[in-house]
């Protein structure tokens, strides 16, 4: 067994990392030396088998056009079976260079300008941009915060879904930023409402390998045949294995008619996996599970560390403990800050680059999102800086 060292601090500057680039930090967070805890990638080196596979591929030296090889499709099928007990077929898998591009292609393919797409704020902010930049309207079904736990508002969802202009729903499962791993009952209810009202469910499951037990991820399409036919599941190894820069994602479309329509779009644009994307995904899914399990245990310890720190040293901040993802949602509403004041305290006093809650839409105003996929020493420094920035504030 290889024992991975997630405590190792690796200097990412000089690698074109948007998270760490001084200019980006200066321009967007007002401080070039801030501790970057924002965008969702990890400060950990990937599993050794991925490095070896990519090195071998690089040594080959020719990087012409790629294609979705049978091996590539097979590892995706096996992964879903192994991790979530979900049976899919190779033919159902379409390739896109990321889930954001996929969501764009989906809206372009299945919506007309003026149509409505449901989202559940606070939610991953590019959802809103994708909808409005394609001439559609956001139909918001805000989540409800009930005793530090987020829940879906089904009665409102029913009303929104009934509108004949509502065509799609972007489901974030697990949910970024609130960290919910939706239960079978919740998904069942949501799926029934969408089915009854002819709303196609687009289930973004990019965080689905990052789940803390006893929670379990349930792929939307696994619930029933009907749901499978009324959904598109977006999956990817990029969060689980830290491969975001390689641009890889698998779009699972069981329904042949929908698949043909989406595939037509993809064929027009002519996108195939890059030379390194499929190599990395195959290595990750075939040989990366040992690393992934050790990662999950490290992330859980980081989460415990945050929880303890907050409880003991900054108890007015409330942690919404995530059931999945490496993103924690911090509630500052006990302080009377405006959105701008909270932002300035984090950026200028604490000198930490966090994602402001308000960018995730209604309900995010008094929150900050912290990415805790980093060595514990950095996490500790960040939390101490937050503590210091709040000293003396009533
Ligand atoms: C819910 C969600 N969807 C999609 C993405 C981005 O996906 P990609 O990099 O594959 O475009 C992220 C990245 O943080 C995310 O959190």
Annotation keywords:
2 domains, Aspartate Aminotransferase, domain 2, four-stranded antiparallel β-sheet, binds pyridoxal-5'-phosphate, Aspartate Aminotransferase, domain 1, 394 residues
> Average pLDDT across residues?
97
Enumerate the distinct ligands: pyridoxal-5'-phosphate
Measured between the Cα atoms of the first and last residue, the distance is: 51 Å
What's the CATH superfamily of the largest domain, by name? Type I PLP-dependent aspartate aminotransferase-like (Major domain)
List the uncertain runs: none
Globally, the shape reads globular
Q: Please identify, by name, the CATH architecture of the largest domain.
A: 3-Layer(aba) Sandwich
Radius of gyration: 21 Å
Count all strands and give the number: 15
CATH classification, class level of the largest domain? Alpha Beta
Classification by helices and strands: alpha/beta
Tally of separate helices? 13
Under CATH, the topology of the largest domain can be stated as Aspartate Aminotransferase, domain 2
Q: Which bin fits the share of residues in helices?
A: 40-55%
Strand proportion: 5-15%
* SSE string: HEHHEHEHEEEHEHEHEEHHHEEHEEEH
Number of domains: 2
